[in-house]
Amino acid sequence: MAEENIFKWPITIYYEDTDVGGLVYHANYLKFFERARTELLRSIGVSQQELFKNKASFVIRHIDMDYLKGARLDEQLIVQTRVETVKKASIIFCQGLVNNAGHTLCKATVKVACVNPETMKPTAIPQFIMSEISK
């Protein structure tokens, strides 16, 4: 991932994240990536509650993940998140879980759609988000 415009979120791998072998259970990578996207929005002043007030919510439309090397118990890692593409009602994020040596353990391309949470129909991404996320 190119260094420009990358949001970085630190995580520690806890016992609850791992399987019996001490490796991160595959579904937990999704949780790490979800938290990092939420924190990216929070870093630009957008809370989930504010989204709901504006009748907007982000839902996963598509995920493509590549597990390259298992993360292990007690590792301190960084989730790197970059906005790849912004459209009227969707955003594509590129994310990676990186260790201290700079090796990517898992990477994902995540497409989120903006929907009205009451109707679950697509809606335009609120302007206050568009102006911040498109920078």
Automatic annotation (TrEMBL):
Top-level taxonomic group: Bacteria
Family, as annotated: Belongs to the 4-hydroxybenzoyl-CoA thioesterase family.
Keywords from the UniProt entry: Hydrolase
Entry coiled-coil feature ranges: none
The protein's name in its UniProt record: Uncharacterized protein
GO MF, any single term: fatty acyl-CoA hydrolase activity
Annotated Pfam families: 4HBT_2
InterPro entries in alphabetical order: 4-hydroxybenzoyl-CoA_TE (IPR050563), HotDog_dom_sf (IPR029069), Tol-Pal_acyl-CoA_thioesterase (IPR014166), YbgC/YbaW (IPR006684)
Organism: Photobacterium profundum 3TCK
Keyword Ligase part of the UniProt annotation: no
Keyword Cell cycle appears in the UniProt entry: no
